[in-house]
Predict the 3D structure of the following.
Amino acid sequence: MTAQLSKKSEAWSARFSEPVSDLVKRYTASVFFDKRLAQFDIQGSLAHAEMLAHQNIISSQDYADIQRGMTQIQSEIASGKFEWLLDLEDVHLNIEKRLTELVGDAGKRLHTGRSRNDQVATDIRLYLRTAIDDIKVLLRELRLALVDLAEQHAETILPGFTHMQVAQPVTFGHHMLAYVEMFGRDAERMADCRKRVNRLPLGAAALAGTTFAIDRERVAATLGFDDVCRNSLDAVSDRDFAIEFCAASALVMTHISRMSEELVIWMSPRVGFIDIADRFCTGSSIMPQKKNPDVPELARGKTGRVNGHLIALLTLMKGQPLAYNKDNQEDKEPLFDTVDTVVDTLRIFADMARGITVKADAMRAAALQGYATATDLADYLVKKGLPFRDAHEAVARAVRACVDKNCDLSDLTLDEMRAFSPLIEQDIFSVLTLEGSVRARDHVGGTAPGQVRTAIARIRAELT
Ligand code: ARG
């Protein structure tokens, strides 16, 4: 605990005849976690004070004093000298109290036409806007790392799976680009969410607006908000923008988790498709042979807490009547932990993607097992005039025969194959190769190496 129990000075003390107990003080305080909003709180206060001065609600001397005091507070916070007091409940009252200590009455005038309700809503929006901008950069870095990996392996054959059973061959580059698409949509969702985050609550005051002749547009412009919140009750009470952010984050982590699951499977010695650089793995304290993919496993695990935070915020909101209720103080820890988890995870994954070694031989060998080109044989028969369902049946019989003989489709002789359909000719052998199979899927969104390269060029252009 960094805040201390001292210096009693509540902003509403005259109304009360007895102090709250230490337990209640601790229970209702948020300074331990909301002090993280300090820089945004100061930024918002300065914009508010500038507007008050411009509107002649406070004097320009008051504004100058507030600026001077805030500069000092900023350096006290940066150097760790700022004394956070539990008695002062939250970040807002701590900073305001210190400001008043430093500059006197000007500090007491700062809160004119404002409430902590619109103040905190503004702080969270400023904080979240920065977080979203960071996350967008990190998503881009991860996508670029995956695109580089895809480019190196535009032709590398990987067995594609459905139901965890070998289905059809795909290129490893194509597989990586699937994640690039997912993270691209995540970035779109973040950008879209940012539009609704980036609106100014200040001016709503406690809930009904203020009697002072404020200029909300001016504050919005100073703080870089696109617009002002249009209804004061809504402005102080709803946290849908934070919920939306948590939903977008839950999807980021869900995509990370799916990828993690694959990395863990691929790195299992039983599968052996990839290796992950040592700096992302750890050993076992008892089994000397182990090299565990801890980072993907942890990321898969951390997805749970991010999903949980989404549910926490939805539940926090659902029972609240208009307007502000203290419940909303509970929005911060889930939100902060979501940001921390997503930021750390994306940063580490962008780095780890560059530490993946692909074992192309093992992937190819696995694709050769499991009749991955059976669909190609069926398509071949369709192109010779057989209805697809009949072709499916003919190939199913051929696969069955191969299972009995313990061989691949391409190991059958032409005569053996013709027993399943007389339409089969010599040209079937190129169709049954893994390379022929992927090359044939040559359309937008298909796995052909040429399509992978075209997609890479498109994504790179989008990312520059
Ligand atoms: N610490 C509070 C929060 O996080 C600030 C707003 C408090 N407003 C109030 N009327 N108690 O929401």
Q: What stands out?
A: Residues 30, 34, 90, 116-117, 120, 326, 328-329 surround arginine (CB under 6 Å). Residues 109 and 355 are 56 Å apart (CA to CA).
